[in-house]
Each structure stands twice: as C-alpha cells, then as structure tokens.
C-alpha cells in the first residue's frame, strides 16, 4: 500500500505508517496541482492538511485511492461528493487540535482587547506610546459563540472562568448541552444585539459561507469585536472591512482568510485588525495528535477496520 503525504505532518504519524511492513510512505510537499494529478495515480492513500486542494480532477486521477486523510478538522479543501462518488473514504482527525484552536482563539481575544500586537510593533520601533493602547477588559462582557461544537465548547468553558457571559448559536446542539458548559443557547439576532465579542466556530459549508455580512454587522452593538479562528469565508471580508471603517466594529482578530495567504487583503492594512497565518492548530501537541490519528485512520482503512469519516 502506498501513502502520499502532501502537506507537512508530524514525524510521529509517519513513523506509525512506516512501521507497517507492507506500507510505503512518500512525503512530497509543495506539489503543483499538475504534479499532484500525475503522482496520485500510484497511491492508495493521500494525507493532507489545509494547503493541498483535493479537487475533482485530483480525485479522478487517483485510480487506486482508497482514503483521503485530513490531519486536522476542516475538509473544505476536499471535494467530498467527488470522493464519495468514487467510493473513496474522507477521514479527518477531529479532536487532536481542538485545544490548540481553542487556546489560540482566547489568545487572539486578549491580544485584540489589549492591543498587544500593535503595542509590540510600536515599542520595538523605538516608541513609548502608553495612552495609544488603552484596552478593554473581558470581565462581565458577553461573548457570542457561533457554532457550539468541540472548539466553541472548549472556548465557552474557559471564558466562563474569566467572568464572561456566553450566548451561543448552533442549530444542531441542545439547550441542555449549552447550559451544561455554561452558555445560553439563543438566536443569532440575540447574539448580534448583546455580544461585545463574537467568535465563529462553524465549518465552512454553503450554509455558513458569509453568514456574517453587512446585514448582520448592522444588527451588532457599536464597538463589537470579532474573532475568526475557524475558516475564512464564514465572515464576509468585504463587509467586515466596511464595518471596521465605519466604526461599527472596533476590532477583528483573524487567523483564517478567504484566500490564503491573504496577499493584498485590505484588512491587513487596518490597525484594528490583528492577524496570524492560520496558526490555530500549530502547537507541538496538536500536530502530534492529528498525525497519529490520521495515520491510524489510514491503516484502519487498509485493514478493512472501521474508520471515522469526516
Ligand atoms: P465541530 O464539528 O466540533 O463544531 C462545529 C459546530 O458548528 C457544530 O456543532 C455544528 O453543529 C455547528 N454548525 C454547523 N452549521 C452551523 C450554522 N449554520 N450555524 C451555527 N453553527 C453551525 O468542529 P470544531 O472542531 O469545533 O471546528 C470548528 C471550526 O474550526 C472548523 O471550521 C474547523 O475547520 C476550524 N478549525 C480551525 C483551526 C485553525 O487552525 N484555525 C484549527 C482547528 C479547527
Ligand atoms: C483544521 O481544520 O484542523 C485547521 O485548519 C488546522 C490545520 O490544518 O492546520
């Protein structure tokens, strides 16, 4: 069985695959689409993170493909219907990076509310601008959590310990589950009306694409702060840009973008916007976790054992 790994994953996962006598593993990152289409025909499994785009033509070229393994959560870079049509399993590693993504969300919330990235740049450029970087506290503030899944749930548990109220929206969870972790399940409109900070934790799917756009920003409190450590495109970037310029939105903390890397993205030019280059899952612990899980998922598929599909 041949496994092609096209985005960097932790060596721990590679070791698990290589320990199998009849498994060959090739790591080839930074392939062009044409190179991937040419290579994939020889392989039984493809392991990716978020960079490789597994489009229909890649899937069709994968004559021997049995499984596409995503070392992470989001499968929006895989054409899942095309894979399903060909009987190819699409598996992910849904739990291994949830703490990393949750902690990054909280780090971004505090960095934004205390202007830490801006102050860091200012001081390192020789300035001493104490009054310019007046912040806000989170104690007693309301966080709106859109998408109360694994990461939204972990964020909720932690911010409750910091004295924040949490209003959550998720059409697929129950008021009882939300209450058990300290949130009130409510409508999007109540979140827009009351939240001081809004963080999104949904997948990027047709029903969530641009779910926060101009009409939603208009319903929000003046001075709301926005966090997106989930997927670029859940929040409409053009609408966010206007909402910040108009003063409606006081700040935004973004780890993900509609186009990555976000070359030429005008949001990067605004002082109110702080950014990281899709680092939500980038901890040593998370990368080991997801690499091990996805290696085990691929081996299970080869052995005909159960695989948890994405
Ligand atoms: P999850 O599947 O556990 O939770 C997603 C939640 O969104 C589910 O509870 C689902 O019911 C809810 N949802 C679906 N449609 C919705 C809608 N229209 N409105 C509100 N809620 C809706 O996923 P997760 O592990 O919590 O991951 C959340 C997001 O974070 C995903 O987009 C994932 O790709 C992303 N992520 C990003 C990073 C990063 O590096 N920045 C790391 C890990 C995960
Ligand atoms: C994910 O969905 O798991 C994230 O995008 C993290 C990643 O792949 O690095």
What do you see in this structure?
The chain is of the alpha/beta class and 310 residues long. It has twelve helices and twelve strands. It has a seven-stranded parallel sheet with strand order 8-7-6-9-10-11-12, with helices on both faces. It has a five-stranded parallel sheet with strand order 2-1-3-4-5. Helix 1 packs parallel to helix 12 and helix 5 crosses helix 7. The protein is globular and about 65 Å long. It binds nicotinamide-adenine-dinucleotide (NAD) and D-malate. The site of nicotinamide-adenine-dinucleotide has 33 residues, from helix 5 and helix 7.
In brief:
By secondary structure, the chain is α/β, with parallel strands linked by helices.
What is the H/E string? Answer: EHEHEHEHEHHEHEHEHEHEHEEH
Terminal CA distance reads 22 Å
Outline, from the CA principal axes?
A: globular
Q: What hetero molecules are bound to the protein chains?
A: nicotinamide-adenine-dinucleotide, D-malate
**Lateral arrangement of strands in the main beta sheet:** 8-7-6-9-10-11-12
| SS strand fraction | 15-25%
Q: Could you estimate the helical fraction of the residues in percent?
A: 25-40%
Structural class of the secondary elements? Answer: alpha/beta
- Point out poorly predicted stretches: none
Over all CA atoms, what is the radius of gyration? 21 Å
Strand segment tally: 12
Number of helices: 12
pLDDT averaged residue by residue: 98
Biggest beta sheet attributes: 7 strands, parallel
